[in-house]
Design goal:
The model has no long low-confidence stretch (mean pLDDT about 90). Helix 13 runs antiparallel to helix 15. This protein has a 5-stranded parallel β-sheet, sandwiched between helices. It starts with a strand and ends in an 8-residue tail after the last helix. It is elongated. The chain is α/β, with parallel strands linked by helices and about 350 residues long.
């Protein structure tokens, strides 16, 4: 077991949850071959985020901020959703448009905390969530990571290896965490009393990201289907007034709902392509969705599918970056009309 490890994986893969589970396992009083017992004093305190030998570092807001200033918020957020992304965490801190970072003062505090002797656990553990936010301040931790005190472990939970200092990477063992399989997400959702069919559809939409799957539970997929299919019909007709009315309705839904609809749209286009290629109705579309997809095979060609998919991906990219939704989706509606009516020439 390395004293310094990086758990590297994409959004929502569970790398943070795995890091906490790892810290719990190495400190468990009655571990099995597969897991910690979950019932001993160390396990219960680590699970609650209150063990004195388990420390956390995470992005905060403010040039002088350190993680312990936000420990109460962190414990609650971690308990509620260990699959959260950094944007959700910064919203909890009321960051608004401010950038998160891991400050110089935090690095000084890390060196201080890790110099203390263990209180009661076999291993003292520091979990750094998103070391990408260390930037050059990470150089202050190099000696500590390379020569830690006895019985001390560092677990860095990262998403983008390219943003981590090479000097840190060279001192850590990297374990790559894959995105979750559909079956894993389905299992997690059905454990929350979600029907298997709904869980299967949500799993496909989330693309291995359990955090996205949890967000999907807050929205009605059927509403997304209805709204998207209406957009397609409005785009095909090209009536300006209908486009503006649809955009006005959609712009009021909020950014997360808009992202969810675009996710659904990409899912629909993928399934539609399968229908068109194979003629097989055994896809993950039902009722009106399937009927619409079958009808569309007569009027939409593969080059149009490619252009529509690019349009949807571009729209998702811009809405994530706070583009004006009315301007964005009115333009997207006009582009959709041109694609459906073959008014955009193929690029050579």
């Amino acid at each position: 077991m390395p004293h310094a490890a990086i758990f590297l994986g994409p959004h929502g893969c569970g790398a943070l949850a795995l890091a906490v589970a790892h810290a719990q396992y190495v400190n468990c009083e009655n571990p099995t071959d597969e897991d910690s017992c979950g019932a001993c004093r160390n396990c219960t305190r680590i699970a609650k985020g209150i063990h004195p030998d388990i420390h956390y570092t995470y992005p905060t807001v403010g040039s002088k901020a350190i993680s312990t200033h936000f420990l109460k918020e962190w414990r609650k957020a971690l308990a509620d959703n260990p699959y959260m992304d950094v944007n959700e965490w910064l919203q909890i801190l009321n960051a608004e448009n401010k950038q998160g970072n891991i400050t110089r003062d935090e690095c000084v505090d890390i060196v201080k905390k890790m110099s203390f002797k263990n209180y009661e656990a076999p291993y003292k553990v520091l979990i750094i969530w998103l070391p990408e936010y260390l930037a050059k301040e990470g150089n202050r931790l190099l000696k500590l990571i390379e020569e830690p005190p006895p019985k001390t472990l560092f677990i860095l939970v990262a998403e983008n290896q390219e943003l981590i200092l090479n000097t840190i990477l060279s001192r850590c063992q990297i374990t790559k965490i894959n995105k979750l399989r559909d079956e894993d997400i389905i299992s997690g959702l059905t454990a929350q009393n979600i029907g298997e069919e709904d869980a299967r559809r949500i799993a496909f939409l989330s693309n291995g990201n359990y955090n996205e799957a949890l967000k999907q539970l807050k929205h009605d997929t059927n509403d997304h289907a209805t709204l998207f299919l209406k957009w397609f019909r409005v785009g095909y007709k090209g009536n300006g007034l209908e486009m503006v009315n649809w955009v006005d309705t959609f712009a009021k839904l909020g950014r997360e709902n808009q992202k969810q609809l675009l996710n659904y749209a990409l899912y629909f286009m993928r399934e539609f392509m399968v229908v068109k290629m194979t003629g097989n109705a055994r896809v993950r579309l039902q009722g009106e969705e399937l009927q619409t997809a079958q009808n569309m095979t007569k009027v939409i060609e593969f080059d149009q599918i490619e252009k529509i998919t690019k349009l949807l991906n571009d729209s998702y990219y811009h809405i994530e970056r706070n583009a004006n939704p009315k301007a964005l989706f009115l333009d997207a509606s006009i582009q959709l009309h041109k694609i459906l009516r073959h008014k955009i020439p193929n690029s050579k």
